[in-house]
Design goal:
With about 450 residues, the chain is α/β, with parallel strands linked by helices. The protein has 14 helices and 22 strands. Helix 9 runs parallel beside helix 10 and helix 10 packs parallel to helix 12. The C terminus is likely disordered. The structure holds 5'-deoxyadenosine (5AD) and iron/sulfur cluster.
Length: about 450
């Protein structure tokens, strides 16, 4: 066995987990990550079950891989992530050619599962929730060559929004101790990483052991991370409005390297629907927090997730969501049609909004958000932005790509030697999905420019 291929669906937390699966199998079995599944001896699918469509994709993909295995029976196929966690043994009943089933909290056990599968010549399933174990059993992160990286600091969710499968697939809230996070981040920065995105399903509910006495919240962790020399930019995602406290709002004023951009999902602009969703916040409370954030960090960009067609959503509820969008003027956001998820409380509510109405509402909402986002992009034209150079452009490898503070890609002419530097860039054009720019100073720039 030599080669490993991993296909990842879903969120950034899954991307982080996939990296860690590769790390753990490189150490235990010397497996080398390849980007062509045909070359692989072990195929892993890291799955997502947040919405119906995401879960459906899993069995289509496994169907493809089944044909590989018919040709090479020694091939090992593993399924991890939230669908694995949700389905457990059932997944093997539907796809009996799968050899390994493991959940987000058992990926560190992959080497043992693989050994057992090879020795006993039978499939292995382990989708337990041994929260405290995972991070203690992962190897140090090996060398990498990117300017940006994810660090998971918190997992799971105790909020139990009625539509959401996460508390059932990732388990209850757990925060990693601060010293572990600081160590992992320092290692990444030593390897050339300049921007870190802290990840958690409920990242701002973070409360981790400080290593000394007691625990600290996200604001405390951010302040400690910001002192790491060489780290130029910090982000965190995804947040819950009810955990955005005064301390965290103050962090946006005080911590210069904290990007002036926050993803703060609201889901709906109707209090009636928010109550049915069990969101634990009202529209007014949400607006109040946004206002205070904007005082703390003028120009901060806000993005959100929205669900349209939640059970019982009327035209008036949807109109309230559109009103909220106009009041906040969100930047690039994510929006979805409600879909029923296994084990969630909303299953008891009738999925009452017809599909055609959901489609129409989604189109209206996305049209408005895209218009706002395009407006923000257009407003950047002619300004100078601090851009972190991340590598060659995907479309044209002769061009350099970077990221603005508000998380937009900028393509420009430049030297690949600049990768990892934060440079002053004049934005020259706003295209639908990216910006074009011109490097003004090929020397490190201040991060705190107007957005
Ligand atoms: N249906 C539609 N969208 C959902 N999301 C979560 N669960 C569902 C569901 N059952 C969306 C929410 C969440 C994002 C990650 O996915 O907007 O914030
Ligand atoms: Fe799901 Fe709500 Fe928890 Fe977010 S806060 S992960 S939407 S239950």
């Amino acid at each position: 066995m030599q080669n490993l291929y991993i296909k990842t669906y879903g969120c950034q937390m899954n991307e982080y987990d996939s990296e860690r699966m590769a790390d753990v199998l490189a150490v235990s079995h010397g497996l080398h990550l390849v980007d062509d599944p045909v070359l692989a001896d072990v195929l892993l699918l890291n799955t997502c079950s947040i919405r119906e469509k995401a879960a459906d994709k899993v069995f289509t993909q496994l169907g493809f891989w089944r044909s590989f295995k018919e040709r090479r029976p020694e091939l090992v196929i593993g399924v991890g992530g939230c669908v694995a966690s949700q389905e457990g043994e059932r997944l093997r009943r539907r796809a009996p050619y799968v050899d390994l089933v493991f959940g987000p909290q058992t990926l560190h056990r992959l080497p043992d599962l693989l050994d057992a599968c090879l020795a006993e010549r039978r499939p292995q399933v382990d989708v337990a929730f041994p929260m405290l174990e995972k991070f203690d059993h992962l190897p140090q992160r090996p060398g990498r060559d990117g300017a940006t990286a994810f660090v998971t600091i918190q997992e799971g969710c105790d909020k139990f929004c009625t539509f959401c499968v996460v508390p059932h697939t990732r388990g209850r809230e757990y925060s990693r101790p601060m010293p572990d996070i600081l160590r992992e981040t320092r290692t990444l920065v030593d390897q050339g990483v300049r921007e870190i995105t802290l990840l958690g399903q409920n990242v701002n509910a973070y409360r981790g052991a400080t290593g000394l006495v007691g625990e600290g919240g996200l604001a405390d962790l951010l302040a400690r991370l910001a002192r790491i020399p060489g780290l130029l930019r910090l982000r965190y995602t995804t947040s819950h409005p009810s955990n955005l406290d005064d301390e965290l709002i103050a962090a946006h004023a005080n911590i210069e390297i904290l990007a002036p951009h926050l993803h703060l999902p609201v889901q709906s602009g109707s209090d009636r629907i928010l109550r049915r969703m069990h969101r634990k916040h009202t529209v007014e409370q949400y607006l109040d927090k946004i206002e205070r954030l904007r005082v703390a960090r003028p120009g901060i960009q806000i993005s959100s997730d929205f669900i349209v067609g939640f059970p019982g959503e009327t035209d008036a509820d949807f109109a309230a969501t559109m009103e909220l969008i106009d009041a906040v003027r969100f930047d690039q956001s994510f929006s979805f049609k409600y879909s029923q998820r296994p084990n969630t409380p909303a299953l008891k509510l009738k999925d009452s909004v017809p599909e055609a109405v959901k489609d129409a509402r989604l189109a209206v909402l996305q049209g408005r958000i895209n218009g706002l986002a395009q407006g923000y992009a257009q407003a950047l034209v002619g300004t100078r932005q601090a851009v972190l150079m991340t590598g060659p452009s995907r479309r044209d490898p002769q061009q350099l790509t970077g990221k603005t503070a508000c998380n937009r890609s900028v393509n420009m002419a430049g030297s690949m030697d600049w990768v990892g530097q934060m440079l002053d860039v004049e934005i020259t054009a706003a295209l639908p999905n990216s910006l074009r720019g011109r490097v003004v100073h090929a020397a490190p720039a201040s991060q705190r420019l107007a957005v």
